[in-house]
Amino acid sequence: MARVVAHLGRPETPQEAADRKAESSRRYRSSKTFRNLIAALIVTVGVVLVVVAAVPRGEPAPRPDIDVAALAAEMQSDLGRPVLSPSLGEGWRVNQASTEGVGGTEAWTMVYVRSGESGFLRVAQGFEADETWVGQVLDGTRSTETIEIDGITWNVYRPSNPSGTGNIDYALATPAGPDYVLVYGDAAPETAALAAASVTSQIEQLREVP
């Protein structure tokens, strides 16, 4: 018996029955495709998350230690005179060691930092330099006093505006033969004195250079 269609008020024709079934199949396939797409996206996201979680995240390789003594020895061979190789003791490490130009003067400069703490200290040997070079580095700061460390007299500098001198708030400087030695940074004066004391013998040798 033919199916009576409510909105038609009569049995549907064979063609109408075929059209209804075709439309029903089309809707079913469409909904199934959408569900499959959503399921595929969920699976893909899950796989990505698993892969990301599984990738090892090792810590960055530590920077190799800078061998200040070896670099100084090589430079000393080229220059034919002593080159500084300071030692600040336990807890301090060299963050940078290179020659750099300040106001036309080349300087062998080592930057020391303390592990796990803020603050820095630089030790620099200005080649063929004088007190003018110190003034350029310290933004015109003048010496306020002197201090004797291991028999070496050092000029003491206390920049009044550290922000204008790269956060330098304390410095020591002394002539060393043809060169000038500068110890400066924002570390405690006791640390600066320790660094100065560690190059006493090298300063004495430089002062003997003709």
Walk me through what this model shows.
The mean pLDDT is 81. The termini are far apart. With 210 residues, this protein is α+β, with helices and mostly antiparallel strands. It has two domains: 14-54; 68-208, Phosphorylase Kinase, domain 1, CATH 3.30.200.100. The chain has helices at 14-54, 68-79, 131-137, 189-197, 200-206; strands at residues 4-5, 10-11, 92-102, 105-114, 120-126, 143-149, 152-157, 170-176, 179-185. It has five helices and nine strands.
List the helices and strands and how they pair.
Blueprint: E1 4-5, E2 10-11, H1 14-54, H2 68-79, E3 92-102, E4 105-114, E5 120-126, H3 131-137, E6 143-149, E7 152-157, E8 170-176, E9 179-185, H4 189-197, H5 200-206
Antiparallel strand pairs: 1-2, 3-4, 4-5, 5-9, 6-7, 7-8, 8-9
Would you tell me the overall average pLDDT?
A: 81
Write the CATH homologous superfamily of the largest domain.
Answer: MucB/RseB, C-terminal domain
Percent helix among the residues? 25-40%
Could you say how many structural domains there are in total? 2
Main beta-sheet strand count, sense and barrel state: 7 strands, antiparallel
Instruction: Please state the structural category.
Output: alpha+beta
- The total count of strands amounts to 9
Strands of the biggest beta sheet: in what spatial order? Answer: 3-4-5-9-8-7-6
> What is the general shape?
elongated
Radius of gyration equals: 38 Å
Regions with pLDDT < 50 over 5+ consecutive residues? Answer: none
Tell me what the CATH architecture of the largest domain is: 2-Layer Sandwich
Helix segment tally: 5
